């Protein structure tokens, strides 16, 4: 299904020069919130992720990867390496509020489309640049890739089994966080522009955003000067807070405080642990985490995962099964929260995508159009926004500009 009600960003127009994941995550969020997003793609090739497959979505030529972050966008093919293509971009910018890009530092300046080249001509323009390492600093010229940023940003040193190798997260979190921080920056810049009429550049470096979300582990290091060890699925500051084997699988047990641990012990035959100094408080349990794990493992094996979930939830003790993605999308709560939706694709197929998680009571996200086919809206945008005629468009196409 699709919805057409205006969102909180309705009336704003975004020129989207991003591709792959970090930038498109940012601009899809803007599109979901009501902005008109014009995605500029290379003629014939398009966004790199159109070819990040298999899998392709059935009955289409689109990769599942591309479909995940490109709904609510209009695809327009323009070769910005050619003067005629650059001229089209400048004309489009006359009616745009935001330009989002994730080219290497300085790359767009070669085409006359860098921020310093545009800011005087378009003083209200909000220009969001998302790169691997930001616009300044010794690493600024380097390309940024998710796994590279996870490695350099420290998360891989924290992830994995204690005696195993460093591990990256199973999804590209460095890209995703950069995109979301970019969106936050754009929203702040919009508020500033509403008050002053002044646009600005937003400089998002993936390594910066990665360092920012090191959160408690980053603070653990800053307070001690010691790199936190890899703990597998254990929590660095809370115990027990990890996975345990059950009679038929695994369960996450999250005991967040001492009263909860006391409740667990009294209800599951472990009351004697409360008299043991090594289990008395959370700091003591963290200091003796291996003992806690060894002690509770045989206890957790006495019930199935479902039995534990029922028993622990009744006592308001944090727990949950370790779901596969099949389990996730079949989960009644995920379904009740409408976290997937079907959209009519330009190919004639119906595609299923993951919904926006932001729940706004008055102006919720909208789903106006499925991820576009390459160049699907080129004629409509150039004629509708720039007033170009069919002959002029065809001439540009013949030259390889479109």
From TrEMBL:
Keywords: Transferase. GO terms for molecular function: transferase activity. Signal peptide: none annotated. The keyword Transmembrane does not apply. Pfam families: CoA_transf_3. It comes from Roseomonas alba. It comes from the Bacteria. This is CoA transferase. The keyword Transferase applies.
């Amino acid at each position: 299904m699709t919805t057409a009600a205006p969102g909180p960003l309705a009336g704003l127009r975004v020129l989207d020069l991003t591709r792959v994941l970090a930038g498109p995550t940012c601009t899809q969020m803007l599109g979901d919130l009501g902005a008109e997003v014009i995605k500029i793609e290379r003629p014939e090739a398009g966004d790199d992720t159109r070819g990040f497959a298999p899998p392709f979505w059935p009955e289409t030529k689109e990769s599942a990867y591309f479909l995940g972050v490109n709904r609510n966008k209009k695809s327009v093919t323009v070769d910005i390496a050619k003067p005629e293509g650059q001229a089209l971009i400048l004309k489009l910018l006359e009616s745009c509020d935001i330009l989002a890009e994730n080219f290497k530092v300085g790359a767009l300046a070669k085409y006359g489309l860098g921020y310093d080249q545009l800011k005087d001509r378009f003083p209200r323009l909000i220009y969001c640049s998302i790169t691997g390492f930001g616009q300044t600093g010794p690493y600024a010229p380097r390309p940024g890739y998710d796994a590279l940023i996870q490695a350099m940003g420290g998360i891989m040193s924290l992830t994995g089994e204690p005696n195993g190798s460093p591990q990256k997260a199973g999804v590209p979190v460095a890209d995703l966080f950069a995109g979301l921080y970019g969106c936050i920056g754009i929203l702040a810049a919009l508020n500033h522009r509403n008050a002053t009429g002044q646009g600005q550049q937003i400089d998002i470096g993936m390594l910066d955003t990665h360092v920012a979300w090191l959160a408690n582990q980053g603070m653990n290091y800053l307070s001690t000067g010691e790199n936190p060890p890899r703990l597998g699925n254990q929590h660095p500051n809370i115990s027990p807070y990890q996975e345990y084997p059950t009679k038929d699988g695994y369960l996450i047990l999250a005991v967040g405080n001492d009263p909860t641990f006391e409740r667990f012990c009294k209800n599951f035959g472990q009351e004697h642990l409360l008299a043991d100094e090594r289990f008395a408080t959370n700091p003591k349990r963290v200091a003796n985490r291996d003992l806690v794990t060894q002690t509770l493992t045989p206890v957790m094996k006495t019930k199935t995962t479902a039995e534990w979930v029922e028993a622990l939830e009744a006592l308001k003790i944090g727990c949950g099964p370790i779901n596969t993605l099949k389990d996730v999308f079949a989960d009644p709560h995920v379904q009740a929260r409408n976290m997937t939706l079907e959209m009519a694709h330009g190919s004639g197929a119906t595609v299923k995508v993951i919904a926006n998680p932001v729940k706004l009571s008055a102006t919720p996200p909208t789903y106006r159009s499925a991820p576009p086919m390459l160049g699907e809206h080129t004629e409509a945008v150039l004629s509708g926004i720039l007033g170009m005629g069919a002959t002029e468009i065809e001439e540009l196409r013949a030259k390889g500009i479109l």
